[in-house]
Structures are given as C-alpha cells and as structure tokens.
Design brief:
Layout lengths: L25 H11 L27 H13 L12 H5 L8 H16 L3 H10 L15 H12 L7 H8 L6 E2 L1 H7 L3 E4 L4 E4 L4 E3 L1 H8 L3 E3 L7 E2 L2 H7 L6 E3 L1 E3 L9 E4 L2 E5 L14 H10 L3 H16 L8 E5 L7 H11 L4 E2 L3 H7 L12 E4 L8 H12 L2 E4 L7 E4 L3 E6 L14 E5 L5 H6 L4 H24 L17 H7 L3 H12 L8 E3 H10 L6 H10 L3 E2 L21 E3 L11 H16 L14
Parallel strand pairs: 1-5, 2-7, 8-10, 11-16, 11-17, 12-13, 13-16
Antiparallel strand pairs: 2-3, 3-4, 5-6, 9-10, 14-15, 18-20, 19-20
Helix pairs in contact: 4-5, 4-6, 7-8
C-alpha cells in the first residue's frame, strides 16, 4: 500500500463508490497515515550533499565483491529490517520483493548499502545498478533524480557504518559475541598457531600451549561460521581454527624459544618452521645504590679478579638473555655463607617462568634422561651439588652447559631436539663437590673465603646480617641490582671458555679420584716411568695394580687425558717402536702438552727421549734431556 500527498491523480469509475466528494476526510486521512505509515528513523533528516568517498569512521571492505559477500553473509544470519522494508539484504539485492512495494524496497536497499559503503553515494549507485534489483524506473525521464534522491535520503537517516571489526575490537576490547563469522575469526584467533609436533595450539597472547579440550574451554561458548556461504557452523573453537573453509590457520612444525625475536614470530630454517614462544619478562629495575650486594660478593670472594669474573658472567647473562655462555661458574663455600643469594637475584631478574632449580641429588642419582624441565629456561641453579666420583653425570651435564640445542625427553614422550638457552650457576658446600680436570673449559671454580663456622663469624655473616640483607633486597635492593647488571659495562671480548680463577689449581686437585691422585703424586715425585713430563703405560699399570684399583684398560687413556697427558702423536696408538728403558718393553708413552718431545716425529728418537728422562730421574734428577735429531 502506498500513500501520496502530492503530484498524484487517481481516476475512479464511481462504481461501488460511497460517500460524497465534498466530505472532509482530513481526520480520517491522518488516522490512516498514523496507522499504516508510521514515521521512520531519520525521516525528518534533511538530505545532504552527494558524496564520492566514505565517512572517516568507515572501515568496511574496499572490494565491491567482498562487500556484497559480507553483506549477504550478515543477511543470512537473520539481519532484517535494519533500514526499513522488513526484508533481508539478500531479498532486497536479489529483487525477491513484493511487486507492489518496489519503491519502498529501493529505499531499504539504499539504506543497507549506505551502511556497508560508509555513505559513499557514488559507490551506492554503482552497486545498485549492478544488482539484480535494477529497474528501468531509475533512469526513466518521468522519474528524474529518483535514484539520486533515494540514495541521498538513505545517507541522511543511516547513522552507523561498517567498521574494521578487528581494529575496533582491538581498540575497545569488545567481545565478538555469541556468533563469530569468518571475518571476526581472524581477530578472535589472532596469535594462535597450530603445532604439528605437539598436535596442539600455541596462543602467543597468553604464551600458552593448549590441547583441544583446553582451547575449547578458553575460546568456546560461541557459534562459529566455518564456510563462506554461512551454512556450516560449529560450537568448537578448535574445529573452527583448524577446519575453517574460509580462514586457513597458521601451521608450523614445532615450537622454538628465541629471546631475540618477537613472541609468536615464525622461524623458518629450510623446510622446518617453528613459532617463537619467548615472551619478554620485565622486572622492576631502578637506578640506585647496589653496593651492599657488591660488598657481599667481596666478602665471599676477596680476590678482586674472582669477583669481577663472576659479576661479568651475571651481567652478560642478563644483558643477552638466551645467548648461550658455554661455561658456568661454580661457587663453593661453607653452608650458610649466602651463596644462594646469587641465585635469588638472578631469579628475580629472569622471573619464575624462565628459571629453575632442579633436585640435584635426584639428577645425580637418576641422570639427565628426563630433562624437559630445561626447556624454555634462561637461568638454572644447581644447588647443594655433591658430584665427587659422579663423572658419568658430569658427562651428561656437558651439553646443558655448552650446547645451544639439546635433546629433550619427558616420561612417556619421544625425545625431541630443542633450543637450550639456559645459563646458570653451580653452588656447592664441598671443595670436591664437582670433579674437575686439567684444561677444563666448562667450569670456572670460585672458593669462597668462608670454609668453616669460624670464617662466618670472622666475616660477620650472622643471622642479623642476613635478615638485614633480605630486608634491603625486598625494600628496593632487587631493583637496584637489576639496574646495575643491566647497565654493567662489559669488556669488548668475552671469554667463551671458563677463565682461570684463584681456585682453579686446587679445584683440579680436589676433583681427582683415588687413582688420579696416585698418578698425580707419582708425577710430582718424579718416579721412574712418571718423570720428565712422561708417563709410561707399563709403570701406570704397575701402580694401579699394586693399589688394586680397577680402572679398565680402555678407560686409562681417558683418565690420563683428564690429568693433561695423552699418547705422543708421533707414535701410532702411542706405542714405542722398540723396547725402551727402564721398561724393557714396547710400552705406550703419554706426554704432557707443550713438551719439547712433541717436536720429534721419528719414533725411535721419541723412545730415546723418554728413556733419557727416566735415566735422569733414576739418578736423582728432576728434568729431562732431549736431543732433537730425527735422523739419528
């Protein structure tokens, strides 16, 4: 039904007509108009100027095809009568409208398009002319400016326009609601990556790895559209992310932990890909006086060079998180001298998530087979270490200290390779707590000045001292130390092997087992077969057998290497070419690094050099006489 108040004349035949043409119908007219043609929103708004661009707040699709597809999907979800007409956008666009209401539907279609185009009149006209709803009336001379007037009127009463859903929700934190269409899903699942190795989803915003059940709990409670036509839906967020026919999820092979990259960044190395799971931890760090902490270190390590080496290591780990330092400090001292405060400070700097203190006794007993605790860690503290005669465990510990990638294994899970970004420190109460060898490059040993209760009393390390120290830490000391280490001026060249300390030589001696100690004593005494920088395998066997020390033959070379000796490189398998004295047999000859005989290449000359050194020893000498002549 239509109502005209001007420029319309209707001819009536008079058949079945009732009443008198002179009757005043004003009241009846207004009643009819009020009942059947109520005012609509914006009816009294004056039409504006013709526009060729969207309003500033618009953020809809630029592409016409995408715009119409998006509008149709919204229509299929039941968006009706938003702009008059009582019909959906799809019905208006496809001209599926009552024949006697086509003008009203033209206006409603223009209203919908005003919303989707941001009131861009030129674009509205272009889209309407391209639609199945096009009518000849729009270009009829008898209806001049009909379409333009319809469009301008639509723009006058439409007060909202399409916006970029992702940007809008990012700005105001708006929830997408119970119904999430494909365009909303990109923002809704932003930061989520499917991990093939774990068959799980990593959420970069929460820095969390989730299985299907956890993902559905966190992101669920909604209906998700998973196809372009809007016909397929699911209530599973996991299914939506992984099986959508519109949005393909980010898929990578594995996780990685790269503190130098942004959280969620994809790393590609050849065919392998991974998502970075490092999220920066920022502790409170403020400029201030950190001297109290430095004084505590000086009490433990009165040798200034030792204190400097330790502080540089800590600062290096803090300033370059995740960069592997291929050696660890070993701090030894009397129980209760505050060694653990070093670990406490570093745990403050790196945060609970990225630090760990494993049960060292359990590790030494059971080994490092199950080491998943090391994954995604920046700092590890091995506390109360007692590993004397645990050389097997020391071998397992080596890759953790030195390697940037290691094999991770958890109970019931296949081993996998992963990033190892952990630096750390070893704390022990015992000087022989960590067995070291000459030439050790992985551990820098520091012996604290406190080796007894008397030393603690001497240095004022009382209960009151530590109570006051902890109060200072919690009252701002942590933040001052953090700033100090973050800004500490590091030297241009940083050591990639453990530097020697004032305790290195003693630590090597302390780390020797019974067999190694016996051999070391024989070397220092200059006994036959052990004199002049040489060790004979024959005399070595005699010494070990006499003390009934069961060192397997295939392990004896490793033992000698730990003491800094190895087979002479000029002898195949280390064995002399002819019998040497005083052994009277073709023994294997070990020699220390830097020995003058290393210049010899003639096997016979090498044997004579050994014999000469033992002859001097037999007559009470301490040195060796070598004639370097490979032609004799």
């Amino acid at each position: 039904m239509e109502l005209y108040t001007a420029r319309r004349f209707i001819a009536l035949t008079g058949t079945h007509a009732h009443g008198d043409a002179g009757t005043d119908c004003t009241a009846a007219f207004h009643a009819t108009a009020a009942q059947y043609f109520p005012p609509t929103a914006g009816q009294n708004v004056t039409a504006g100027e013709w526009t060729t661009a969207p309003v500033p707040e618009w953020g809809g699709p630029e592409d016409d095809g995408e715009l119409i597809a998006r509008a149709l999907r919204a229509s299929d979800r039941g968006t009706k009568a938003l702009f008059g007409g009582g019909l959906t956008f799809r019905q208006l666009w496809e001209a599926d409208v009552p024949h006697d209401a086509r003008s009203e539907c033209d206006q409603a279609l223009a209203g919908h398009l005003a919303f989707w185009t941001g009131k861009n009149c030129e674009r509205i006209e272009r889209l309407m002319r391209a639609s199945p709803a096009y009518r000849d009336k729009w270009d009829s001379p008898a209806h001049a400016n009909y379409l333009a007037t319809t469009i301008l009127k639509a723009c006058s009463y439409v007060d909202k326009v399409a916006v970029d859903l992702r940007a809008a929700r990012a700005a105001d934190g708006e929830d997408p609601g119970d119904f999430v269409d494909p365009h909303q899903q990109a923002a809704f699942f932003d930061g989520c990556t499917y991990i093939l190795q774990q068959l799980q989803i990593y959420d970069a915003k929460r820095n969390r790895l989730m299985n299907r059940e956890a993902f559905d709990v966190l992101f669920g409670g909604r209906v998700f559209v998973i196809d372009a036509a809007g016909e397929k839906i699911t209530d599973s967020a996991y299914k939506c992310l992984t099986q959508s026919r519109v949005n393909r999820p980010r898929i990578v092979d594995d996780l990685c932990f790269r503190p130098g990259l942004a959280t969620g960044e994809i790393v590609r190395e050849g065919p392998w890909s991974a998502v970075n799971t490092y999220a920066p931890y920022v502790c409170v760090a403020t400029p201030g006086d950190a001297s109290r902490w430095l004084q505590h270190i000086a009490r433990m390590l009165p040798v200034a060079a030792d204190a400097r080496i330790l502080i540089e290591y800590l600062a290096r780990a803090v300033q370059f998180p995740g960069v592997k330092i291929p050696w660890w400090p070993v701090l030894q001292g009397m129980k209760g001298n505050g060694k653990t405060l070093i670990a406490v400070v570093m745990e403050y700097l790196f945060g609970e998530t990225y630090t760990y203190r494993p049960n060292t006794a359990a590790l030494a007993r059971d080994g490092m087979k199950f080491n998943k605790w090391l994954s995604r860690k920046l700092w590890v503290t091995l506390d109360e270490v007692t590993l004397h005669d645990k050389r097997g465990f020391m071998e397992e510990l080596k890759p953790i200290v030195t390697e940037s990638r290691v094999t991770y294994e958890a109970k019931g899970v296949d081993p996998v390779m992963g990033d190892n970004t952990a630096n750390g420190i070893i704390l022990t109460n015992h000087k022989d707590g960590l067995p070291l060898t000459d030439g050790e490059r992985r551990y820098a040993v520091f012996y604290c000045a406190q080796q007894s209760e008397a030393d603690l009393i001497r240095d004022g390390m009382t209960q009151q001292y530590f109570d006051d120290f902890l109060a200072w830490l919690q009252g701002g000391g942590f933040a001052h130390i953090a700033h100090y280490l973050q800004t500490y001026p590091l030297p241009a060249v940083l050591p990639n092997r453990a530097p020697k300390t004032s305790a290195t030589a003693e630590a090597i001696t302390q780390g020797l087992g019974t067999a190694e100690q016996l051999v070391q004593d024989a070397i220092e005494e200059g006994r036959q077969g052990f004199a002049g920088g040489w060790v004979s395998s024959y005399y070595l066997d005699q010494l070990l057998d006499a003390k009934r020390l069961k060192i397997p033959l295939n392990k004896r070379r490793s033992m000698m290497q730990a003491l800094g000796y190895d087979w002479h490189p000029g002898l195949p398998d280390g064995r002399a070419h002819e019998a040497v004295t005083p052994d009277n047999r073709r023994t294997k000859l070990y020699v220390r690094p830097g020995h003058l005989s290393l210049q010899l290449t003639d096997p016979l000359a090498i044997g004579r050099a050994y014999s000469a050194a033992q002859t001097v020893s037999a007559f009470g000498g301490a040195g060796s006489v070598i004639s370097i002549n490979n032609n004799r």
